[in-house]
């Protein structure tokens, strides 16, 4: 099989990239390491407690032990499922500050301003 593009990872970045390429008529192979959800826990906001730390949904990364904090390791969850981390995230949305968008545009990025 041949494709114009291969996108690795169907998370917040990979899925829209694949969709935009398809809209332009390209053939795209989207590869995802995680399995399709059978039970849609990710659609229930409070069910985040069942996906984070669950290898069925989460890569379950751990940091190296931090000697400055008594050897503490931390869990760094990342989604391993179609939709990636957006499938296991907290669904919190914060509107960006208008002046940040306008500053990005002023730095020479047409279309990045708030408008
Ligand atoms: C627990 C948690 C809570 C969060 N809460 C919020 C929130 O409330 N609001 C908010 O805006 N953001 C939140 N975020 C952040 C947000 O979800 C992420 O920043 C965003 O989803 C990252 O997108 P991404 O495309 O970079 O990576 P991801 O969405 O993680 O996508 C990467 C994809 O690539 C796949 N992949 C990796 N390696 C391979 C491989 N070798 N082969 C095939 N596939 C592979 C992974 O399985 C995954 O599906 C949260 C994140 C986490 C983890």
Mean pLDDT: 95
Number of helices: 4
What percent strand?
5-15%
Largest beta-sheet characterization? 2 strands, parallel
Provide the low-confidence segments as ranges.
Answer: none
Give a topology summary.
Layout: E1 5-8, H1 14-23, E2 28-31, H2 48-51, E3 61-62, E4 75-76, H3 85-88, H4 98-106
Parallel strand pairs: 1-2
Antiparallel strand pairs: 3-4
Bound molecules: flavin-adenine dinucleotide (FAD).
Short descriptors:
single chain; 115 residues; alpha+beta; 2 domains; two-stranded parallel sheet; 4 strands; extended; binds flavin-adenine dinucleotide
What would a concise description of this structure say?
23% of the residues lie in helices and 10% in strands.
Could you characterize what this model shows?
This protein has helices at 14-23, 48-51, 85-88, 98-106, and strands spanning 5-8, 28-31, 61-62, 75-76. With 115 residues, the protein is of the alpha+beta class. The protein folds into two domains: 1-32, no CATH class; 38-115, no CATH class. Strands 1-2 form a two-stranded parallel ribbon. Residues 8-14, 31-34, 52, 77-80, 84-86, 88-92 line the site of flavin-adenine dinucleotide.
